[in-house]
Design brief:
151 residues; three-stranded mixed beta sheet; 8 strands; alpha+beta; 3 helices; five-stranded antiparallel beta sheet
Length: 151
Amino acid sequence: MKTTEICEQLCRPKVEELGFTLCDVEFQKEYGDWVLTLFIDKDGGVNIDDCELVSRAIEPILDESDPIEQTYFLSVSSLGLDRPLKKDADYQRNLGKLIQVKLYAPINGKKEHIGTLESFDAESFTLKPEKGEALRLNKKDAALVRPHIVF
């Protein structure tokens, strides 16, 4: 089992008990140091106090179970406005919303498409552009899928 999966299993109950959703866990090297990052969300959004609350609550759980051999830093973060869609839960959260898709190869002469996420399954998703026909795209053909932020 991956480090991220172990940490997710250990932390999810406490995060949910505190009223948050644990959306993703990453464990990667940043500037020479290992960082375990938990991405959380809740209705109304997440602020810095929420991140601190969750961090203090899960620190003892991780210390006690000690699932990571090397030294690391713990980080708790909100998803962010333009966080890429990776998991089904990300697609679910963005149904009916505008998304931006960057493709590896062009479709209809374009590598970038913006439209409303209409549906998805394990392999693909449907994007409805403002003008034109809906596009059924394979997830594996997309280099990047993220919310489209309009200011």
